[in-house]
User: Which sequence fits this backbone?
């Protein structure tokens, strides 16, 4: 079974590599999977967005991120109305300041939002760490400091309130 | 092939169902204890005044009775304060179970891989009504997983064995079936070529055997039909040839020999008689063909007596010439379901025969009466009668008991054949009783019409 998946993955990668280059530049933007609680799967999923001509424009990219995903299976981790106050890249990493969303987000949800931003902008800005500040909250993350799933498989689930 | 695919799909569904059911059963038995363990741990940790890696590690060390594979404790932001594996300590642990538990829910999930059942549970750590963290535990059960794997493999092996048996059986069945079907096809081709002497022998006791028997019946009927057809053509040719030969002979005589006007007139009269006979014969052949071709579902409610009287009136002159007198005894109360034209034809032919083959001074007796649920028409003459060996043939086409007399009286040998065809088509029966030198009696029986039972 594992061999089959490896083969399928290899084929997908090969096909992706062989696709016709249309000249547009894209990047993966990570958002929250809408069904992760029922499927007990990885809570974060990505979608490609076109960033032609704006690859270095972090402010534009963050505004593009805040517009939310186009896929119905994904949802923005940040509440509606959340705005970008500033973005700064320095030797320590990327500093993102967002408007205060303390009233509408739990700490865990904020951590999840930070994880999404970290995964997205670590690649876009070529930085190790991403620090997100919103009101009194401040979270610094890098790829190694986030674990999203115990192992990579889906599972059945049942909840009780 | 269809059977193979169907059984394959059924066995596949059976395999998946068995596997899923076993896993579900195991999960159901495991779920309660996992959630209980998780709640126990979260209750213990919730009693701590301060949540930090040190205090949590101390609390966890006192919970050895939990016996879980992995235990993670996080704060409210998902930061791992304790991980029994040590991998996630200090990092953000955003497992779907943990994120769900952070919303105040107890959650349990499972998955099965490589012969191991991996069960996970998470519960929020509640501190005076506020979620301050989460406890996440996992338990891996290789023993139960191994049992499930063994069962899955056993079911799979049995399924494969069954599938092989089905495939072998299908091949055997297909081979036998096509061999037997080919036999029928071969005989069909032989029959198509006009050889009706072959009978297919299928053996066994299944649908193909029934098909083979039906095929044999059909061949037999075809053979009979073909025989009748060729006999009819032969008889008809012979019967039509005789008057034609007479006409030709008479015409040649007129042309070749010098004869007086009286003789010529006599010969021409004979030619006219032969032509008339030919005409009658053709008309009767046409009548017979129509009678055989007609569908039997047309009918009307008829009282037979008026028809018999009408025929008697029509044949009165012929009877007078033959010095035969009628004796009619007609019951007028019994109706039958038949077309009036058909009934007329039956009565006419029987009475005409009764006059033709009677003797001068003889009596033609016609009786109509009811016998139980049947209406009976009986036509009796006082003629020479029919020899016993001829009784079985008198309804055949062109059969004549006394050929010379029949021709002399203008008989075609088709009258009784027409009568029998019409009677049978109208659900009736015809019987003949004859004593040589005393006469013959033809009895035709039809089911009497009952308004409460029958529909016109």
Assistant:
């Amino acid at each position: 079974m594992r061999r089959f998946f490896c083969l399928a993955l290899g084929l997908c990668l090969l096909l992706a590599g062989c696709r016709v280059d249309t000249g547009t530049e894209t990047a993966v933007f990570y958002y929250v999977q809408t069904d992760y609680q029922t499927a007990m799967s990885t809570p974060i999923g990505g979608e490609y967005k076109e960033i032609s001509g704006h690859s270095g424009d972090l402010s534009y990219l963050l505004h593009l991120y805040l517009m939310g995903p186009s896929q119905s299976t994904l949802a923005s981790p940040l509440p509606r109305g959340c705005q970008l106050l500033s973005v700064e890249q320095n030797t320590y990493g990327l500093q993102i300041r967002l408007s205060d969303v303390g009233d509408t987000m739990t700490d865990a949800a904020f951590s999840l939002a930070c994880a999404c931003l970290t995964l997205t902008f670590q690649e876009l800005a070529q930085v190790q760490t991403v620090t997100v500040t919103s009101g009194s909250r401040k979270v610094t993350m890098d790829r190694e400091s986030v674990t999203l799933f115990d192992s990579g498989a889906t599972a059945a689930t049942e909840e009780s309130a | 092939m269809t059977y193979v695919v169907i059984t394959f799909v059924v066995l596949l569904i059976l395999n998946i169902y068995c596997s899923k059911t076993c896993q579900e059963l195991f999960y159901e038995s495991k779920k309660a204890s996992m959630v209980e363990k998780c709640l126990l741990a979260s209750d213990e940790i919730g009693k701590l005044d301060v949540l930090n890696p040190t205090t949590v590690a101390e609390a966890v060390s006192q919970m050895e009775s939990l016996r879980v594979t992995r235990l993670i404790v996080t704060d409210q932001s998902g930061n791992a304060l304790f991980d029994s594996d040590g991998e996630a300590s200090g990092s953000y642990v955003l497992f779907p179970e943990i994120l769900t538990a952070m919303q105040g829910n107890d959650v349990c999930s499972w998955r099965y891989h490589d012969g191991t059942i991996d069960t996970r549970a998470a519960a929020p750590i509640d501190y005076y009504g506020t979620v301050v963290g989460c406890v996440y535990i996992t338990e891996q059960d290789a023993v139960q997983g191994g049992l499930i794997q063994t069962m899955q493999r056993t079911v799979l092996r049995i399924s494969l064995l069954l599938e092989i048996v089905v495939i072998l059986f299908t091949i055997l069945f297909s081979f036998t079936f096509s061999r037997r079907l080919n036999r029928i096809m071969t005989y069909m081709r032989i029959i198509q070529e006009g050889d009706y002497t072959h009978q297919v022998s299928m053996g066994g006791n299944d649908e193909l055997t029934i098909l083979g028997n039906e095929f044999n019946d059909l061949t037999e009927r075809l053979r009979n039909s073909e025989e009748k057809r060729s006999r009819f053509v032969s008889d008809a040719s012979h019967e039509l040839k005789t008057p034609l030969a007479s006409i030709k002979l008479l015409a040649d005589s007129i042309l070749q020999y010098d004869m007086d006007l009286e003789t010529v007139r006599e010969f021409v009269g004979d030619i006219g008689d032969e032509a008339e006979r030919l005409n009658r014969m053709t008309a009767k052949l046409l009548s017979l063909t129509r009678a055989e071709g007609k569908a039997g579902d047309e009918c009307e409610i008829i009282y037979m007596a008026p028809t018999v009287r009408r025929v008697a009136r029509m044949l009165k002159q012929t009877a007078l010439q033959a010095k035969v007198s009628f004796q009619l005894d007609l019951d007028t109360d019994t109706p039958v379901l038949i077309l009036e034209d058909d009934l007329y034809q039956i009565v006419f032919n029987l009475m005409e025969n009764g006059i033709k083959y009677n003797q001068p001074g003889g009596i033609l007796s016609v009786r109509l009466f009811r016998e139980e649920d049947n209406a009976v028409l009986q036509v009796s003459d006082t003629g020479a009668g029919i020899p016993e060996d001829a009784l079985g043939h008198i309804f055949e086409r062109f059969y004549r008991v006394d050929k010379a007399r029949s021709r002399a009286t203008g008989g075609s040998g088709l009258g009784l054949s027409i009568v029998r065809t019409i009677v049978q088509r109208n659900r009736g029966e015809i019987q003949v009783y004859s004593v040589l030198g005393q006469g013959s009696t033809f009895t035709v029986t039809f089911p009497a019409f009952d308004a409460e039972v029958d529909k016109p």
